[in-house]
Amino acid sequence: MGKAIVISGAGCSLIDNLYNKLDFSGDNFRKYLSKNAGDGGLTPGQLVLTEDFEKFTGENINISISKIVGNRPPDVFNIGGPGGVALINTAQLTYNIDTIVNYYGARGDDVDGNHIAELLSKTPLNLSHYKISKKPSPYTIVFSDPWYDNGHGERTFINNIGAAWDLHPEDLDDEFFSSDIVVFGATALVPNIHDNLASLLKKAKQRGCITVVNTVYDFRNEKKNPGKKWPLGESDESYRYTDLLIVDHEEALRLSGTRNVDDAAAFFIKQQTGGFAITYGVNPILVYSSGNLFQPQSLVKIPVSEKVRIMLKEHPEIAGDTTGCGDNFAGGMIASLAMQIYKEIAKPDIIEAALWGVASGGFACFYVGGTWFEKNKGEKLREVLPIYNDLASR
User: Fold this and answer.
1) With contact defined as beta carbons under 8 Å apart, do 29 and 70 qualify?
2) What CA–CA distances, in Å, run from 90 to 1, 66, 134, 258, 340?
3) With 0-12 CB in 10 A as exposed, 13-18 as middle and 19+ as buried, what is 337?
4) Mean pLDDT by 10 residues, the chain (394 residues)
5) 3-class state of residue 342 by DSSP
6) Cβ distance 349 to 295 under 8 Å?
7) DSSP letter string over 48-98?
8) Can you point out the beta strands (E) in the chain?
9) Which helix (H) or strand (E) holds 216?
10) Given the DSSP bridges, would you call strands 14-19 and 139-145 parallel, antiparallel or unpaired?
């Protein structure tokens, strides 16, 4: 057995206010749809910032929400944010090996902040680096339509950055840069980290860390330059310091400034990204490794879980929603990387990591919201393992 694996992640964690079973084609929803890129309207699968949504609608966000959903409260209050959710899944899946998972984030000293802290305390994360800000806690309004895209489901998000503005590069201390694996999760929602990402990744590599970046829709940069290529940190140098990049299809196109996934993959390869996985809803995941960290792997497509698809089709009553599928996919890949390092595998297998990602993302379809709260240690792993075993046997 190897030494303890220390994973430290900086990124977004917030309260998800999730409204399930909405109809994106209904009149109440359609009038809030975006007309032009970056205009602040809603777009299925994408995120908009609260202040931009209010400018688009000309009304307070609470009024818009009530017009969309009526008087109903959220179906679920849950921990959201691709930074926190991914790390929670990583910690849950690696409970039976010696790991420490540190979370670096910021919350407000308010009701939502206390609620976030209370929920996070029920997870295996180490929260000693969780900063308290005077700004309001981050939150996301999540609208979910499980029937969208021929029953595959989709969500759209309204995000308030709030206290995440107060997480700065100097908050990432020596302990962060002494970790075996550092994760930058959804930093587009943590602006001061995102805008310094190349420098932070370079520092992590100089300190001998393995670096992981998982992304989120970057509405802040989309608003600045609608339809243009998004920056990842100060420059494209961020990619050469990234051992594992995890993006969805839309983010891949926007970060690369290309129009199809093959060209996006070519861009990431040209930028000397160590390895990457590009997800695309229910479509196969595109995976690649240069051989720097993982074993060399030419571009290959990995299908999503057929087992999950069949279960959801045959037993629709067990379906949750698709919120958090991508975040849990990222957490599954990071967990597998940690497992392989713990076993002292010299060159981890990125395909193995992707299978754990697919299994984790698939399991997230069976509950509402991004975070699964365990009743006892090992529960999440026991639930995800059969899905992984099915994938690995094919």
Assistant:
1) no
2) 19, 36, 29, 31, 13
3) buried
4) 86 90 91 90 91 95 94 88 94 96 97 92 96 95 88 88 97 98 96 98 98 94 91 97 97 97 98 97 95 98 91 79 87 98 96 98 89 94 96 90
5) helix
6) yes
7) EEHHHHHHHHTS-HHHHHHHHHTTPPPSEEEEE-HHHHHHHHHHHHTTTS-
8) 5-11, 14-19, 47-49, 76-80, 99-108, 130-133, 139-145, 154-160, 181-185, 210-214, 244-248, 275-280, 283-289, 297-302
9) none
10) parallel
Q: Which amino acid is at 356?
A: W
CA–CA separation, 388 vs 236, rounded Å? 34
The CA distance from 220 to 230, in Å, is: 10
47 vs 160, 178, 370, CA distance in Å? 10, 33, 16
151 CB-side CA count, 13 A: 6
CA dist list (Å): 181 to 16, 101, 120, 204, 305: 27, 9, 21, 9, 27
CA distances from 324 to 81, 217, 294, 329 (A): 8, 14, 26, 8
- Rounded CA gap, 319 and 153, in Å? 11
Farthest-apart Cα atoms in the chain, separation: 59
d(CA 369, CA 19): 10
Amino acid identity of residue 271, one-letter, is Q
- Residue 2 is predicted with a pLDDT of 55
The residue among 114, 118, 158, 165 whose CA lies nearest residue 139 is 158
Placement of tokens 């240690």 in the chain: 377
pLDDT per residue over 75-93, tens digit each? Answer: 888 888 889 999 999 999 9
What would the pLDDT profile of 139-176 be if each residue is shown by its tens digit? 999 999 988 888 778 889 999 999 999 999 999 999 99
- pLDDT score of 369: 79
Per-residue burial over 305-327, b = 16 or more CB atoms within 10 Å of its CB, e = otherwise: bebbeebbeeeeeebbbbbbbbb
Quick one: which of 347, 104, 116, 271 has its CA closest to 247?
271
Residue owning tokens 């930058």: 184
Residue-by-residue DSSP string for 221-262: HHHHSTTSPPPSTTSTHHHHT-SEEEEEHHHHHHHHT-SSHH
The Cα–Cα gap between 371 and 393 comes to: 27
Q: What is the pLDDT of residue 62?
A: 93
